[in-house]
Write a structure and sequence with these properties.
Blueprint lengths: L1 H46 L3 H29 L1 H21 L3 H27 L4 H32 L3 H5 L2 H14 L14 H19 L1 H4 L4 H23 L13 H30 L5 H8 L1 H17 L4 H20 L7 H29 L6 H33 L5 H30 L38
Length: 502
């Protein structure tokens, strides 16, 4: 009896440490994206970069991250979660060191690219590990913790980036993350089991890898350069057309490949399909509101950059509390009900932000909007994260989360580029008495568009629905290994859907 209690205590202790490892990984990826954005002016001045060179500091990271998420997920399926996560963290640490110590711009860009590669390997692998956890309660708790980490990374990136850049210099924006990422890399072999011997022969689907990376990188490049080049510019339209051709070639190849990079049958799993199609609306609402909201506070309401970051900091607290609420809701209701309701709640927060104007005070107007928006987006994020892998086989969880994270990432890029363009166009056309009033009109329209997208996401969840499934007991033990244990086949299930936790 004593031995059984000791084993259970050790299992829970290991699960807590594994959760810390995976949340740290997600925090670093989200944090890095925002903290570097704040440091860009200092980087530009240090290297005497033009506008194009400054843009490439971000692009060097976004292209490999957006283009390799599917590859990273499939590698974790094929070669094991532990080695792929360790490799991803190794790339990320190397990129941080190289970027922080770079004496020349090309070394800085190389470091940023290595960070993007590392993040693309680590992120879908982390989600696949969580989804393979057999205990529904522990799995939902881990997804909630990862959502909190992402929210804190987003909320803290702007504040910490400003403080570090102004106090110590932009290089420490990278170097301060090195010990954290290195500690995560050192902990990985101790917390994850070795992968079992490979049952498959042969290598990766290299034509599929090339076509998917080409399509995704071209798409991300076109979206990130829309604001500067214009939506209808030859560069944007040509890049988008090339992306469509690459994707068409990818899907045509995958249908015939013996060992495809992405088994297309996964797209027919209802819960996965619903999560992938509806989740971008949640990401669009969150990323768009943070990006547009920070600009709105500074340019329309007169906040300083640090003041704007501090004004958004309650969003991180709300995310922390909202993750527990999401876990509680998912134990009592179908995830589709929770996710749809969360989308509508996010839309309400965005509408409140759209009603704020140049004379609006923080407490009666801005703070309630952030609280509502934060609750909606974190509950939605946890729900979609759970749904994306729950009915996907263990052999495809990594690839599934590669697709899921790619859709989420592209939605974030589209939100920033699209909402920024909408706000700028509306502000330029507004007949207002002051520049602040014109800018406010632009940002208000951007908030309304984000709210409409959130509503569409909620409707998609309600219309597309969930996978039917037989009742299942909550298993008492979780897999902290390489994701080899899963209780769900890829094919559809029979039986009547049951309300309750999943």
């Amino acid at each position: 009896m004593t031995g059984s209690r000791t084993a259970e205590r050790m299992r829970r202790h290991r699960a807590v440490l594994l959760t810390a490892l995976l949340t740290t990984t997600n925090f670093l990826v989200v944090f890095d994206g925002l903290v570097v954005t704040v440091a860009l002016p200092a980087v530009q001045h240090s290297f005497a970069l033009g506008q194009a060179g400054t843009q490439w500091v971000m692009t060097a990271y976004t292209l490999p991250l957006g283009g390799m998420l599917l590859l990273g997920g499939r590698c974790s399926d094929r070669y094991g979660r532990r080695p792929v996560l360790l490799t991803g963290l190794g790339f990320f640490v190397t990129g941080l060191v190289l970027a922080g110590l770079a004496p020349a711009p090309w070394l800085l860009l190389t470091g940023r690219a290595l960070q993007g590669v590392g993040a693309a390997l680590a992120v879908p692998t982390s989600f696949a590990i969580i989804s393979a956890t057999q205990s529904v309660t522990e799995r939902n708790r881990m997804f909630a913790a990862v959502a909190v980490a992402g929210g804190l990374g987003a909320a803290g990136g702007a504040i910490i980036g400003g403080v570090v850049t102004q106090g110590l210099g932009w290089r420490y924006v990278f170097l301060f993350s090195v010990p954290v990422a290195l500690l995560a890399a050192l902990a990985t072999p101790k917390l994850l089991d070795r992968p079992p011997p490979r049952s498959e022969t042969g290598g990766l689907d290299l034509p599929g890898v090339a076509l998917s990376m080409a399509g995704l990188m071209l798409l991300v490049f076109a979206l990130t350069h829309t604001e500067s080049a214009g939506l209808l510019s030859p560069v944007t339209l040509g890049t988008l057309a090339a992306s469509v051709v690459a994707f068409a070639g990818f899907f045509h190849h995958e249908r015939k490949a013996a060992a495809p990079l992405l088994r297309l049958g996964i797209l027919r799993v209802p819960s996965f399909r619903t999560a992938v199609l509806a989740m971008p609306a949640n990401e669009f609402a969150y990323q768009g509101s943070v990006f547009i909201g920070l600009l709105f506070l500074q340019q329309a309401l007169g906040y300083s950059p640090l003041g704007a970051g501090l004004a958004f900091s309650p969003l991180g607290v709300v995310v922390l509390l909202g993750s527990s609420l999401a876990n509680w809701l998912l134990r009592r209701f179908r995830w589709t009900v929770v996710a749809a309701g969360a989308q509508f709640l996010s839309a309400g927060g965005l509408v409140l932000l759209a009603l704020a104007g140049p004379g609006s005070a923080y407490l009666p107007h801005i703070l309630p909007s952030l609280i509502i928006l934060g609750l909606g987006t974190v509950v939605g994020a946890v729900s979609f994260n759970v749904a994306a892998g729950k009915d996907v086989s263990a052999a495809d969880k990594g690839a599934g989360y590669g697709v899921f994270e790619t859709a989420k990432y592209v939605a974030g890029v589209l939100a920033i580029a699209g909402l920024g363009s909408i706000a700028a166009a509306r502000a330029g056309a507004a007949e207002a008495s002051s520049e602040a009033a014109a800018l406010t009109a632009g940002y208000q329209l951007a908030f309304v568009v984000a709210a409409v997208v959130a509503v569409v996401g909620g409707l998609l969840v309600a219309l597309l629905g969930d996978s039917p499934r037989p009742p299942r007991e909550d298993a008492p033990h979780s897999s902290t290994g390489n994701g080899s244990s899963s209780s769900r086949p890829l094919a559809h299930h029979s039986g009547k859907p049951k309300r309750g936790k999943e």
